[in-house]
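Worked example 3. Consider a protein that binds magnesium ion.
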Amino acid sequence: MAASRIIDNPRDIKLSDYDPDDTNGMKHKDATAAQPKLEARLCAQQELLYAASRQSVLLVLQGMDTSGKDGTVKHVLQSINPTGCHVWSFKVPSAEEAAHDFLWRIHQRTPARGMMAVFNRSQYEDVLVARVHNLVPRDIWQERYAQINHFEHMLAQNDTIILKFFLHITKDEQRQRLLAREDDPTKSWKLSVGDWQERQYWDAYQDAYQDALGKCAAEQAPWYIVPANKKWYRNHFILQTIIERLEPYERAWNEELAARGKEELAALRQAKVHEA
Ligand code: AMP
Ligand code: MG
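Given these inputs, the predicted complex is written out as structure tokens:
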């Protein structure tokens, strides 16, 4: 049996147990057919989240270069109301960011109640690129797993619904995508010498990801290992996962809105502010 794609408690995992080509038996055309309904569902959930303002939602996207972090933002979140969502891309830290602890810049971007936030790269870079390139000594990055766990636990206790997605592609798929960028003038702006250089560290990155996923997993802040070689399945999987995760909250959000509506109506009648 295939290993569970949800990592919700700390354990050792092997990425080689997970097939990036998996589609769970689904066909492309089925996913395309399901898309409009799923998008409408997510859009409705986001409206409830926003109106009820009880929880916030944090989506963390991590993955190797070309794994589809930008594509996920574009395709999975296109249906939702931009008013209720922020997308943050974390790059090489600025001088000011680097002068602080590594979570400082992250915490400033966590979503307020009612809001959704997407992290395109995240706090995890500090146990990924920082580890692979020895940007800090080993004992420093080793302490960060626990620091991230505490941080995420605190966010969850403060009503943040956390979903962390690892977009899992093969090394060969990355090669194809990098080469495709060279051939396609509409994609060539994404090219970077750095991507081919980083590719030489593929194995070190896979090790670092295995540790990050295995050590920073909790029921309230799980990782989802997304089969991402096929873009259509990646999008379908993520959309479906977010919807399923938000479903249990919908009833309370609806009740909250109904109660608030009643209160406001009563207040309105009391105040008799209606024009004759
Ligand atoms: P991109 O996602 O292609 O725009 O590239 C962003 C770059 O910023 C990647 O090479 C990341 O590894 C790098 N980056 C993001 N966060 C950090 C960090 N905390 N320390 C060092 N590099 C980082
Ligand atoms: Mg890049």
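Take a moment to read the result before moving on. The chain is about 50% helix and 10% strand. The longest helix spans residues 28-52.
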